[in-house]
Amino acid sequence: MHAITLITGGARSGKSSFALQLARKRYSQRAFIATAMAFDEEMNQRISCHQKERGNTFHTIEEPIRLARAISSCAGRAEVALVDCLTVWLGNLYHHCDENERTVREHVDAFLAALDLPPCDLILVTNEVGWGIVPDNPLARAFRDMAGQLNREIAQKAQQVYLLCCGIPLALKGERPHE
């Protein structure tokens, strides 16, 4: 059975860097599933920084919507697939599914089902979005709630869960990270 590692935390907490470090330390055949889409100059710059940080040590798969399919494409091609990031993916779903919660949930359920028998180890990066102010509009509240539920369901399936705080990984489930 392949292992699932969930890495969560706030914005700019060091999640992606920690995920890359884990993947590089533990695996030689690595896939990186990028969920971000460059819809403006700021996102272009963020994507470029992430690309430079991982260099050419990963086979990159760009998939903003069909995450379950992207994961299954790693069968026999990678020891680990690092997905960065699930909350960006969730935002993509809300946008591409015209904010239809039922359609978003169908994609989320397909992704969660893919976690039952992953084709390789998975490192999943997500954000904690529910620790701040309650959003002032229904769409933002629906997104926050769906992200929280998604994170909770993944954490139940995961063997390891880390919370990044100020760049420091805290083991919530599983073994403590080796420095």
Give the tags:
179 residues; 7-stranded mixed sheet; alpha/beta; 6 helices; 21% strand; Rossmann fold
Main beta-sheet annotation: 7 strands, mixed
| Contiguous uncertain segments of 5+ residues | none
Question: What percent of residues adopt helix (DSSP H or I)?
Answer: 40-55%
Count of strand segments: 7
Percent of sequence in beta strands: 15-25%
Find the CATH topology. Rossmann fold
- Assign the CATH architecture: 3-Layer(aba) Sandwich
Rounded mean pLDDT score: 92
What's the number of helices?
6
CATH class: Alpha Beta
- The succession of helices and strands, N to C, reads EHEHEHEHHEHEE
Strand order of the largest sheet: 3-2-4-5-1-6-7
CATH homology group: P-loop containing nucleotide triphosphate hydrolases
Radius of gyration: 15 Å
| Category from helices, strands and their pairing | alpha/beta
Shape: globular
Number of domains: 1
Q: Determine the N-to-C terminus distance.
A: 26 Å
Give me a quick take on this structure.
The chain is of the alpha/beta class. It has a single domain, classed as Rossmann fold (3-Layer(aba) Sandwich). The protein contains six helices and seven strands; from the N terminus they run βαβαβαβααβαββ.
Walkthrough of the structure:
The chain has six helices and seven strands. The model has no long low-confidence stretch (mean pLDDT 92). The chain has a single domain (4-173), classed as P-loop containing nucleotide triphosphate hydrolases (Rossmann fold, 3-Layer(aba) Sandwich). The chain is globular, with a radius of gyration of 15 Å. The chain is of the alpha/beta class and 179 residues long. The protein has a seven-stranded mixed β-sheet with strand order 3-2-4-5-1-6-7, sandwiched between helices.
